[in-house]
């Protein structure tokens, strides 16, 4: 088999975080499928050099850059891209420091903020819809008794809110109820995708000399 005429499949990553590397190879940025000898050479090809290794930065490598690098070595190869068209390189000169105490402080603070916000939202909803009066009326209709605190309805309602939150967010403590992604995870992934697309457009504009 003529290795120069083989088919090479390249699946570029959307984002790659690198630490302390001055040069980047194709293996760092993409998965490659090709005959073993070709794959080994393609994986080792240097595709990018970090301009300044003394500071953190974001850079972009396009699939065109990767294909051109492969064609220099294998000009007759059929290179197929099956991944993202651009790779965002997030370069860090050293691993970020983690502070366990500070992380717990942020988690607890965020939980308190979310708890307070959810409490106010539920109370506001109950007030706007006059839910308390509605429970009193429903209790009188079904039981024939006039009660200011119809526990027969308010207790199941409170339990239902808690159960609904658990089912909706698919978490109980540190454990997931099912393997499906939670709505929060979906929103975070969508946010990360939007940020990556914005970064790619911004870096591409800078490379073109556009403001």
TrEMBL record:
InterPro entries: SporV_AA, SporV_AA_N_sf
Gene3D superfamilies: eubacterium ventriosum atcc domain
Signal peptide (residue range): none
Ranges for domain Stage V sporulation protein AA: 7-94
Highest taxon above the source species: Bacteria
Transmembrane segment boundaries: 101-125, 151-169
Keywords: Membrane, Transmembrane, Transmembrane helix
Protein name as catalogued: Stage V sporulation protein AA
Lineage: Bacteria, Bacillati, Bacillota, Clostridia, Lachnospirales
């Amino acid at each position: 088999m003529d290795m120069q005429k083989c088919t090479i499949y390249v699946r570029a990553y959307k984002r790659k975080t690198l630490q302390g590397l001055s040069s980047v190879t194709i293996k760092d940025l993409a998965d490659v499928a090709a005959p073993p000898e070709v794959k080994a050479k393609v994986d080792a090809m240097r595709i990018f050099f970090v301009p300044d290794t003394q500071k953190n930065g974001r850079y972009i490598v396009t699939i065109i850059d990767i294909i051109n690098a492969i064609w220099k070595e294998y000009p007759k190869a059929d290179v197929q891209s099956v991944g993202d068209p651009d790779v965002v390189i997030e370069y860090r000169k050293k691993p970020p420091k983690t502070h366990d105490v500070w992380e717990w402080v942020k988690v607890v603070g965020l939980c308190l903020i979310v708890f307070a916000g959810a409490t106010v939202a539920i109370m506001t909803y109950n007030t706007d819809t006059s839910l308390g009066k509605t429970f009193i009326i429903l209790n009188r209709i079904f039981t024939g008794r006039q009660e200011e605190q119809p526990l027969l309805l308010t207790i199941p309602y409170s339990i239902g809110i808690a159960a609904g939150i658990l089912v909706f967010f698919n978490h109980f403590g540190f454990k997931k109820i099912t393997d499906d992604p939670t709505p929060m995870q979906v929103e975070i992934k969508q946010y990360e995708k939007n940020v990556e697309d914005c970064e790619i457009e911004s870096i591409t504009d800078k490379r073109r000399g556009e403001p």
